[in-house]
Design a protein that fits this description.
membrane, MFS_dom, MFS_trans_sf, Growth Hormone, Chain: A, transmembrane, single chain, 2 domains
């Protein structure tokens, strides 16, 4: 059971994550066209600037994670509030491609140092193995980013234009995000020191201590490789679907109206998946729900392709629920498989390939969709099966259910 202090931390980080995602990841969907129109650029160049931000975020992640390992999340996340504000303010003043690219690059640094992975590292730094449910709670609140962000961005763009919308988001980072992060507790002694003192980090990560027999630990390099593959595939599929879902459903035979209605099911399904994971008994190893979640997209895709558009709602529900659970797995699996020592830096490196594939996903899947039309779903279904195979190759072992 979470303490009052831990709940307060989760609420602070959850609200800040909602703000961070809404003002970065979900911004181009509504502002790319008016940005491009006023700046005299092709819309594709605005999305290219966003892709640049995602690539920059990939390289900022490991550095930010290492800083959180050493100093805790509070100072790092306070800094990212400032970076978000500066980047968005710069975006509001962009006069051409160069200034737009520079603004998005600054936002990219803030994304890499301030979104989910940084929030996960912060609670692991504070609570060690007890951070699993805190990670789930943060993703539950962060899952509302599009629900809150898109209507607010649309309202702002309608009333004050895209420049005013960017400036307003910058103001919110200073007026809301910074105080939320400033109110986080300062980290105590590093969990790394406590873990090294046990002289058995594998036992600490799995919950097996003393002379209890256990199988030889898998190679940390092999485990890291498998996790990086899982995260890269997960981000590719989720980003590809976010960018192309309505078009892909229409290519599979659904009407325009049905495609929009079905797409609206993904968000609630993600939240439902995260609630399901949160309700599981603490003794359930997070590998098991992750393995089942990895099968959700391939199962939904196969059903849609074989049964036709009538199965589109089932596909959206399965894809959304699976993606919601896998978002949690990105935070919990490194914790239970490696322990809390060095979590932040490790998480940053594990997510680096995922950030790169995320940046490439809209373009790459767009090419596949153009060539294969509705059958392009077999491509992402195959990737989902590969993700599940990588998760099956990871050994669950015993772990501390705290």
């Amino acid at each position: 059971m979470a303490t009052t202090s831990q709940r307060s931390v989760v609420i602070r980080l959850g609200l800040a994550q909602t703000l961070g995602w809404a003002s970065s990841y979900y911004l181009p969907a509504l502002l790319a066209v008016p940005m491009a129109r006023e700046l005299g650029l092709p819309t594709a160049w605005v999305f290219a600037a966003f892709s640049l931000a995602l690539v920059v975020s990939a390289w900022a992640g490991p550095l930010a994670g290492g800083l959180i390992d050493r100093h805790g999340g509070r100072p790092v996340l306070m800094g990212t509030s400032g970076l978000f504000a500066l980047g968005l303010l710069g975006m509001s003043q962009a006069q051409g491609l160069t200034s737009l690219l520079l603004a998005w690059a600054l936002v990219g640094v803030a994304m890499g140092a301030g979104l989910y992975e940084a929030a996960f590292a912060t609670v692991v730094r504070l609570y060690g193995q007890g951070a699993r449910h805190a990670i789930t709670g943060i993703t539950l609140m962060g899952g509302l980013a599009s629900t809150v962000g898109w209507p607010l961005t649309a309202w702002l763009e309608h009333h004050v234009g895209w420049r005013g919308a960017c400036a307003a988001w910058a103001l919110l980072h200073g007026a809301l995000g910074l105080p939320l992060h400033a109110g986080l507790p300062r980290s105590a002694a590093s969990v790394e020191g406590a873990e090294l003192a046990s002289q058995d980090p594998v036992a600490e990560a799995t919950g097996v201590t003393g002379a209890l027999p256990r199988a030889p630990a898998p190679s940390p390099a092999w485990t890291s490789f498998l996790l990086a593959v899982v995260f890269a595939i997960t981000w590719f599929i989720s980003t590809a679907m976010a960018a192309h879902l309505p078009t892909m459903l229409q290519a599979a035979g659904a009407s325009v109206a049905a495609s929009v209605a079905v797409g609206a099911l993904v968000g609630p399904a993600q939240v439902a998946g995260r609630l399901l994971e949160y309700s599981l008994p603490r003794r359930v190893h997070p590998l098991w729900p992750a393995r089942l979640a990895a099968l959700a997209h391939p199962l939904g895709a196969a059903t849609l392709l074989l049964a036709g558009p009538v199965a589109a709602p089932l596909f959206a529900l399965l894809h959304g629920a699976g993606n919601g659970i896998l978002t949690i797995a990105k935070g919990t699996l490194p914790l239970v498989l490696f322990g809390p020592a060095g979590y932040g830096a490790r998480q940053g490196w594990l997510m680096l390939p995922a950030r790169v594939t995320q940046a490439l996903a809209p373009f790459a899947f767009g090419l596949v969709l153009d060539r294969l039309q509705g059958q392009a779903l077999w491509f992402t279904a195959g990737l989902g099966l590969l993700c599940c195979a990588a998760l099956l190759a990871l050994r669950a072992g015993r772990f501390n259910p705290a």
